[in-house]
Design goal:
By secondary structure, this protein is mainly β. It has two helices and 25 strands.
Length: 324
C-alpha cells in the first residue's frame, strides 16, 4: 500500500485532542440545556391578611386553591421547562403572584400550582389554558380564563367566572353570581339570591336555592333553571335559537310573559289565566302579585313547568384536587 495513502487515512480517522474537547463541550451544553428545561419544584410562603386581596396569573397548567386558618399564603407545585419563575409582588394586604415564562419566542411552559389561602381572602385568578379548581373559600372570587375549565366548590358571597371555551361548574351558596362562557357549558348548583348567566353556544343548567333576581342569556345554547323564588323575584331569559325551561313551585303568585316567534310556548302550572297577543302569551298565577317572569326566544321553545319534588339535574361531580 502506498505510504502516502496510509498516512492520509490515519490522519482522517484519528481523534485529536481538539476534536475530543469539542465533543465534550457539546455534550455538556446539551446536558445543561436539559437540566435547565426540567421541571422545577416551588414551595413559597408569604404573610397575608385574613381578608387581603390576592391576584394570581398563570398562563397554562393548573391552579388549585384551598383554605386554611393561617394568615399566610403557601404556593407549591411544579414548574415546566419554559417557566422562568413565580414572581411575588405587593404585601400582606394586596399580593400578586405571576408565573413568568422564559424569554423565548415560543415559550409555552406549564405550571401546576397549589395555593393555600385564608378562607376570607378576596381572590382573583387569570389564566389562558390553565384549569382552575377552588374549595372552601368564603371571600369573593373572580376568575377569567380562555380555554381553561373552572371547578368550584365554595361558600363565597360573590362569584364571577368568565371563560371562552372552558366549562364552568360551581357548587356553593353564593348570593351574587355571574357566569359567562362562549362555547363552554355552565353548571350551577346551590347558589341563591342574584344570578346572571350568559353563553353563546354552551348550555346553562341552574339548580339553585331561593332567587330574587335572575338574568339568563344565550344565542343558541339551551337554558334550564330549577329553583325556588323569593316573593317578588324577577326572572328574565332571552335566547335566539336555544330553548328555555323554568321549573318553579306551583304555589307561587305572579305573572309570566312568554314569547317565541317560531318556537312553542307552554306553561304547566295550574290555575292560570291566559291572555294571548300575537306571539306573546301572558299567564297569571294566584293573585298575580309577586313574581315576575319574562322569557323570550326567536326560534327556540319556552316551557314553564311545575317544580319536581325530586332533586333536579345536578352538575358533574367536583373533580378538583382534594387538598384536605
Amino acid at each position: 500500500m502506498n505510504p502516502m495513502m496510509t498516512a492520509t487515512r490515519a490522519h482522517e480517522t484519528a481523534v485529536t485532542p481538539v476534536m475530543f474537547m469539542r465533543g465534550w463541550i457539546l455534550t455538556l451544553a446539551f446536558g445543561m440545556a436539559a437540566v435547565a428545561h426540567a421541571e422545577t419544584h416551588v414551595d413559597e410562603h408569604r404573610a397575608f391578611d385574613a381578608d387581603g386581596h390576592l391576584y394570581v396569573n398563570n398562563l397554562a397548567g393548573t391552579v388549585a386553591l384551598n383554605t386554611w386558618d393561617k394568615n399566610e399564603i403557601q404556593v407549591s407545585g411544579e414548574l415546566g421547562g419554559d417557566v422562568d419563575t413565580v414572581e411575588f409582588s405587593g404585601g400582606p394586604s394586596d399580593l400578586r403572584i405571576v408565573v413568568r415564562m422564559r424569554n423565548t419566542k415560543h415559550a409555552s411552559g406549564e405550571a401546576d400550582l397549589t395555593l393555600m389561602v385564608p378562607a376570607n381572602a378576596h381572590v382573583e385568578l387569570e389564566t389562558v389554558s390553565a384549569d382552575v379548581s377552588a374549595q372552601n373559600l368564603r371571600g369573593p372570587l373572580k376568575i377569567k380564563t380562555v380555554s381553561g375549565a373552572a371547578q368550584l366548590q365554595l361558600s363565597s358571597s360573590e362569584v364571577s367566572v368568565q371563560t371562552v371555551s372552558g366549562d364552568i361548574t360551581l357548587r356553593g351558596a353564593s348570593h351574587a353570581t355571574f357566569a359567562k362562557s362562549v362555547s363552554g357549558d355552565i353548571h350551577l348548583a346551590g347558589i341563591q339570591d342574584k344570578l346572571a348567566a350568559e353563553t353563546v353556544s354552551g348550555n346553562v343548567q341552574v339548580d339553585g336555592g331561593r332567587f330574587s333576581e335572575v338574568h339568563l342569556k344565550s344565542v343558541s345554547g339551551d337554558m334550564r333553571l330549577d329553583a325556588s323564588l323569593a316573593e317578588h323575584a324577577q326572572i328574565n331569559g332571552d335566547t335566539l335559537s336555544g330553548s328555555i325551561t323554568l321549573a318553579i313551585p306551583a304555589d307561587i303568585s305572579g305573572t309570566a310573559a312568554l314569547k317565541s316567534f317560531s318556537g312553542d310556548t307552554q306553561c304547566d302550572l295550574g290555575s292560570v289565566q291566559l291572555v294571548s297577543s300575537g306571539k306573546r302569551h301572558e299567564y297569571v298565577w294566584g293573585n298575580g302579585q309577586g313574581v315576575q317572569v319574562e322569557l323570550a326566544s326567536f326560534s327556540g321553545d319556552i316551557h314553564v313547568e311545575k317544580k319536581s319534588p325530586r332533586a333536579a339535574q345536578t352538575p358533574p361531580p367536583f373533580v378538583g384536587k382534594d387538598l384536605k
